[in-house]
């Protein structure tokens, strides 16, 4: 589970790292990967072999690489509570309770391309079977968001849904006799992510209601009239409402 602090790091980078770690957890044993940094790399396909060679000090295959290829607002989730109102967190100062922390979020769709490289085709078959069963288990990415205020650190857990695309064979069959057989499978992962921002809200410490007696009013200016415009209106309720003046402090 990755953790990000909202004032210091982007949550987008945290999702990148979180998905990288999740792929290592899911498939690392199939490809005999012993190190996440040297086994699952964040780079495009075109430079993946060179990147692995830089990390391992040798030209080797058995590895996974991924790259975020698209980032777009998710309009279907724009009406959620996180996007419209945000989530209230802890008080900035527990003694005064004058301000309360808030996290607002913009829902985004994040698309990643993932490639698995190996000399052994059977390893890709094993990965494909596990990949297909993974889709049946309500796949998600669990991350923690830490928000720093003056005197408090609030932690907010997030559970991001994952959606998968088809598995596509991009094996280098034509180069078998020149470079050796390299099998490559590609699939896409879409993350229902968020972009977060933290701010504070003033709290309401006191609300004063003044109620006036209708018989004691000298002029109409002494009260606020609330008109209930409805053919089935409750006249007694209308009379009660028009006698209330609200003052907020």
Please describe what this structure looks like:
This protein is α+β, with helices and mostly antiparallel strands. It folds into 2 domains: about 1-200, STM4215-like, CATH 3.30.2000; about 205-249, no CATH class. The protein is about 25% helix and about 40% strand. The chain has helices at about 10-25, 35-40, 50-55, 80-85, 120-135, 175-180, 235-240, and strands at about 1-5, 40, 65-75, 85-90, 100-120, 140-150, 155-165, 170, 185-200, 205-210, 245-249. Strand 2, helix 3 (about 50-55) and strand 3 form a beta-alpha-beta unit. The two termini are about 45 Å apart.
Structural class: alpha+beta
Proportion of residues in extended strands: 35-45%
Low-confidence stretches: 1-7, 245-249
Fold-level CATH name of the largest domain: STM4215-like
Q: Give the topology string: H per helix, E per strand.
A: EHHEHEHEEHEEEHEEHE
Q: Assign a percent range to the helix content.
A: 10-25%
Write the layout of secondary structure elements.
Elements: E1 2-5, H1 11-27, H2 36-39, E2 40-42, H3 48-56, E3 63-73, H4 81-84, E4 87-91, E5 99-118, H5 121-134, E6 140-148, E7 153-164, E8 168-169, H6 176-179, E9 183-202, E10 207-211, H7 235-241, E11 244-248
Parallel strand pairs: 1-6, 2-3
Antiparallel strand pairs: 3-5, 4-5, 5-9, 6-7, 7-9, 8-9, 10-11
